[in-house]
Amino acid sequence: MDEKRSGVQEAAKFAVQAGCGSEENRATLIESLKSGEDELIREELAELPNLNAFLETISQITGRDEYSLEVVKSYWLGGGLPETEEPMETRLLAEHYAKTISPEFAQELIERLPEKVYLTHLTMVALIASADLSGDARLAGINHCMISGGRVKEVDVDNRTAAVERDVLIYKEGGGFEVIKKETSVAIDPDLTPTIRVNDEVAMHQGVIADVLNPKDVDRLAMWTRKVAETLT
Questions:
Q1: How confident is the model at residue 63 (pLDDT cuts 50, 70, 90)?
Q2: pTM of the model
């Protein structure tokens, strides 16, 4: 992640893929990212209820602006702030879901989720977005939607694809999940990452390379992917 980008821009980098808002919303985010119009980006991001419920909760417990770079990175990559190194009470998260979705949905989360959860994107994907799935369908949904780190092995410029050895979750024998490496073909979006090279360390979301990571963030994402995966059942 580029530390020169604002938190709003970092939030948008991962939120523009298919499935995160409407196509119109995505197009506006892309144009706003190109122009650096943070206020317009923030207006578009307000349409994403899961993102905002988590960012607002992290903001509440840390006292930082919900779109500060530290809060945004804590959600996408995990940890990074003293207050987010330990799991937080689900009821705090549910309070914000009551505003972004509905009080009924918030109550469902309180009843269904563990009493405490890590406030990361992987938690959202595995425990909320994939809640209605099971078995292989749930696993596929998690691996498609999670923020996954990986190393670029090959680049196909003409077809805008890359072979990436990335982190994926698999079911462990006896229950739970573990993280392994798997080579996967992913798309290159020139609006997000115009230049991708072999051996780049990247982050993927929804089957698209969303960002090139610095070494510190590579280690951070890998550690928190494993840390959160160990809590899932």
A1: very high
A2: 0.92
Asked if residues 47 and 23 have their Cβ atoms less than 8 Å apart, the reply is no
Kindly give, in sequence order, each residue whose CB lies less than 8 Å from that of residue 157, ignoring residues fewer than 6 positions away.
none
205 bridge partner residues: 208
For the chain, helix, strand, coil in percent to 5 are 50, 20, 30
Residues 6+ apart with CB under 8 A from 216: none
CATH for the stretch 146-229? 2.30.30.140
* All structural domains of the chain with their residue ranges: 7-129, 146-229
Distances in whole angstroms, Cα of residue 126 to Cα of each of 82, 132, 195 = 23, 10, 31
Pairwise pLDDT comparison (86 vs 24), residue with the higher score: 86
Angle, alpha carbons 142-148-152 (nearest 5°)? 135
